[in-house]
Amino acid sequence: MSEAPHTAPPRPRTLDPLELGFTPRKRVPWLAPLLLLSTGLRTLLAILFGAYLDKRELQNALPGRIYRQPGTGGELWLDYVADLGDGFDATYSVAYLLAQPELDLDGRRLPRGQVLVMGGDQVYPTASGSAYEDRCKGPYQAALPGPPAEGPRPTLFAIAGNHDWYDGLTAFLRLFARRKDGEIGGWRTEQNRSYFATELPAGWWLFGIDEQFGAYLDDPQLIYFEEAARHLGPDDQVVLVVPAPTWVKAVDDPGAYDAVDYFIRTVIAPTGARVPLIVAGDLHHYARYVNGERQLLTCGGGGAYLYPTHKLPERISVPPPDTLARRASRSLPYDLAGTYPEPERSRRFGWGIFGRLPLRNPGFAVMLGLLHTLLMLPMVGVVHRNGASETRIFSIPLAIMLLVTVACAVLFAKPPSAGGKRQVRHWLLGLTHGLAQVGLGVLGTWAWLQFPFVDWAWPLPPVAAAVLYGPIVGYVASLLVATYLLVAGAFGVNLNELFAGQGIEDAKSFLRMHIAADGTLTIYPVAVDHVCHHWEANPDGAAGSSWVEPKAPIRVRLAEAPVVIR
Q: Where, by residue number, does the polypeptide cross the bilayer (predicted)?
């Protein structure tokens, strides 16, 4: 198929959004009240009405092409990145590195991938055309605005993560599966659906599946992959790209891995081909589990906030022995062989919650201040009023606020959108946190009664409480939440909130893989200890070079020794 000539936009001379063609966004404040509410509602709607929003079966009307990436001289370089569409600094740092002609990794010169795979969650917090433009397409086009001067144009494939699914996959398909002008900067997009199969050199294949919130695999998708599997033989090997590391999530939710196991068992295994490597994003770190037959690799460090590694289980069984799936594959033990960041560094990151939570989520502190003000006012009314009727009147809202405070804390310990079952530790920690917040409310009420504000004429007392008490108690309450998160994290509870509340942009990662002519696959896990925060335009750069350059070099290293699969 002949390729249409690429016409690159004019190079921007400044970082003005009008010249860039997109607006560099700040990192997502994940604990902002409106964002929590919006994301929670979208998650709930997606869970309740996901079947009605599911566009996968409609994709049967789109071409079901099976692709081929021959590489050069029987070899191929392939890059993998996931969870990338967050703040500009982190997202673009990774995009910039992926776009460079080569990287120097501990003395190894590794060329840019001829194929780039995006492994899900290409946009945060929810999918929309403008969000994709600002958080994904724009940064990647700025990193590689045109095809490379030498060699073939790299190809881009993508699968959908849960955040890509929040609009029913509409914006995802418009960006990655468009038939006309199928490109993101210098990368060419070829796929027609939200999943793909492509043949690689030396008997390797790349399959990317769409699970849609961990649900079943739809019939058109299975038919597509069954057709692709007709080309497989006993000597072939498949790299399977999935949206989430369900092998880890199956520790708490035994059914999480069922769809992946079903796919391998019914589509690939009958051909005699092997699946020595499964790759996923969704958890924002690098982790590798291994046994004698297969590598299970998580690499979600493309731009989103860091997720911890120090609470990962040292050994897992895959599929989990307590799965209810009929005819499940034989359960095998897998050992944790490598992580990034290292567990000790991950644990140290957790302590940063005290400084980062109130500063990076000011709206969360404001919400807590409002909640405690509404808790303190009826407490003051009950204590300060002498008449029985007034006491009864004020005790009604006080009872409501006490119930709301404790219920919110218990719910926070295990949000409805979180996977797995609510266990005893969630109830105990949530209840303890709720009682601690009530205790803070009692202490705040006592302190407020030491001042003369309660004797002022109405409506001055509530106004004074909102102006003076609210901001102070909101900050103190946010530190109490930080303390709770640190303690709960030690028990494996609210780990996501412990790190989402910090919005850590450093410790990013992606994969660079090489398929040699003899069939050896080598995986180079690339670690980015510190992302760049200071950029400058590159208006006079060569054609195809990055529009925006870091003011200081971005240093990279190997997260662990290269992983070799033969």
A: 30-53, 363-381, 393-414, 426-449, 469-493
Strands 332-340 and 286-290: antiparallel
Residue 332 three-state SS: strand
CB 297 within 8 A of CB 513: no
Extended beta strands in 302-455, E state: 315-318, 332-340
Residue type at position 70: P
Long-range contacts of 22-25 (CB under 8 A, 24+ apart): 22/133, 22/134, 22/137, 22/138, 22/139, 22/141, 22/142, 23/134, 23/138, 24/88, 24/92, 24/134, 24/138, 24/139, 25/87, 25/88, 25/134, 25/135
Question: Rounded to the nearest 10 degrees, how much is the dihedral formed by the CA atoms of 99, 102, 103, 106?
Answer: 170
Per-residue burial over 456-465, b if 16 or more Cβ lie within 10 Å, else e, is eeeeebbebb
| Cα-Cα end-to-end distance for the chain | 33
Q: What is the DSSP letter of 212?
A: T
Residue 236 DSSP one-character state: -
Query: Which helix (H) or strand (E) is 564 found in, with range?
Result: strand 563-565
Banded model confidence at residue 309, pLDDT cuts 50, 70, 90: very high
What is the per-residue DSSP string for 509-552? Answer: EEEEEEE-TTS-EEEEEEEESS----EEE-TTPPTTS-SEEESS
Residue for token pair 């291994």: 290
To 5 degrees, how large is the angle CA 214–CA 216–CA 218?
A: 125
Strands 108-111 and 102-105: antiparallel
User: What integer pLDDT is reported at residue 39 of this predicted model?
Assistant: 67
d(CA 15, CA 13): 7
* 424 CB neighbour count, 10 Å cutoff: 7
Gap between the Cα atoms of 101 and 80, Å rounded: 16
Tokens of 288: 């590798």
Q: How far apart are CA 257 and CA 316, in angstroms?
A: 12
pLDDT tens for 71-81 read 999 999 999 99
Task: Say which residue, 462 or 269, is predicted with more confidence.
Answer: 269
CA angle, 132 as apex, 510 and 297 as ends, to 5°? 25
What single-letter DSSP state applies at residue 72? B
For the CA atoms of 304, 496, 247, 309, what is the dihedral angle to 10 degrees? 80
User: What's 521's DSSP letter?
Assistant: E
In this structure, how many other beta carbons lie within 10 angstroms of the beta carbon of residue 436?
17
Query: Cβ distance 206 to 248 under 8 Å?
Result: no
Here the tokens at position 303 are: 């731009």
Do residues 144 and 92 touch, judged by C-beta distance below 8 A? no
On whether the CB atoms of residues 424 and 410 are closer than 8 A, the answer is no
Question: Once rounded to an integer, what is the mean pLDDT over residues 115-137?
Answer: 92
- Tokens 């199969």 found at: 197
Indicate the pLDDT class of residue 49, thresholds 50, 70 and 90.
low
- Give the pLDDT score at 391: 43
Tens digit of each residue's pLDDT (9 = 90 or more) over 169-183: 888 888 888 766 788
